[in-house]
Amino acid sequence: MANPVCLIIIDGLRHDTAIEECGYLMAAVEAKQARAWQMQSCLPTISAPLYETIHTGLAPIEHGILSNEAIRPSNKPNVFSTLKTAGKTTGAVAHSYYHTLYGGTAFDPFEHTEINDPDAPVPYARYYSMEGYSKVNPALPSETDLCAQTWILAQTHKPDYLLLHSSSCDSLGHYYTSSSAEYRHQAWRVDNALSRLIPRLRDAGYDVLVTADHGMNEDGHHAGDQPGLRAVPFFVFSDRFKAPENEILDQKAIAPTILALLETPIPQSMTSKALT
Questions:
Q1: Phi and psi at residue 10, in whole multiples of 5°?
Q2: Which of 68, 143, 201, 242 could form a disulfide with 206 if both were Cys (CB 3.0 to 4.6 A apart)?
Q3: What is the pLDDT of residue 244?
Q4: pLDDT of residue 212
Q5: If you compute the radius of gyration of the chain from its CA atoms, what whole number of angstroms results?
Q6: Strands 124-128 and 114-116
């Protein structure tokens, strides 16, 4: 029987920052509780296009979502729709973009912030909007609150696939740049919250993957082809991975890997090889 899978996306977290600042994740690697790789993200290094890449296994130029302003419901086979068809359950604690992509409609905070509907495309979800955010008021949910919500979904509904998406590194990177104390400190803040969640998920039988959609640069921006934008971390808490230790992994492999872990047929459109 397949273990359930939790994917944790730390938005905007550079690979080098993760290695330097995420002490819990690196301690897990040192203790051989986890393994770590560098992963290369696709282009453009923009959030919504890469959320779709991570879940469809297609580059943005292939799936057609090329900017945040062009976000729309996914029209390609993706992790959520494939698992729904296979009779498996999914859950998410994530930015509202994920509801627009996979929830079937544009996000309305008064209708979609909390979803508990077995018939919904993503049956169990908690979305946040960050509406009105600015440098003065980043409007960021607490990392501990996000982790607690994820754990509650895991305990209550036991989804086969569970997504946790944190936006804080991306937001503070935009406001203060990747070379700032604020950005580096927030990377640790996320890591610190994960140190309370991941052991619980592991005890509950989950395989856990931790990555980022893209990095951040010294201008507080991301979109292009700089190394600091494309190199992202990929931590794995599972004994089912076969990738060589020093290989740079392809972001397009995440979707087929999740489906392989869940012993679910992989759509033909996901051409990258699963990492199991």
A1: -100, 100
A2: 201
A3: 87
A4: 99
A5: 17
A6: antiparallel
Q: Is the pLDDT of residue 60 over 90?
A: yes
Scan for tokens 């995420």, then name that residue.
22
Helices (H) then strands (E): counts for the chain: 12, 9
In the chain, the percentage of residues whose pLDDT exceeds 70 is 100
Mean pLDDT across 201-229: 99
**Cα 186 to Cα 176: distance, rounded to the nearest angstrom:** 11
- Yes or no: say if 1 and 197 are a contact pair by the CB < 8 Å rule: no
> Strand 207-211 vs strand 231-237: parallel, antiparallel, or unpaired?
antiparallel
DSSP H or E stretch at residue 153: helix 143-157
Give the pLDDT score at 165.
99
- Cβ atoms of residues 127 and 96 within 8 Å: yes
Write down the residue that tokens 């509780």 correspond to: 33
Domain extents for the chain? 5-261
Can you state the percent helix, strand and coil of the chain, rounding each to 5? 40, 15, 45
User: Structure tokens of 199?
Assistant: 């052991």
CATH of range 5-261; options 3.40.720.10, 3.20.20.70, 3.30.420.40, 3.50.50.100: 3.40.720.10
- Give the CA distances from residue 171 to residues 19, 26, 33, 46, in Å, rounded to whole numbers and listed in that order: 20, 23, 30, 13
Token pair listed for 171: 């937001």
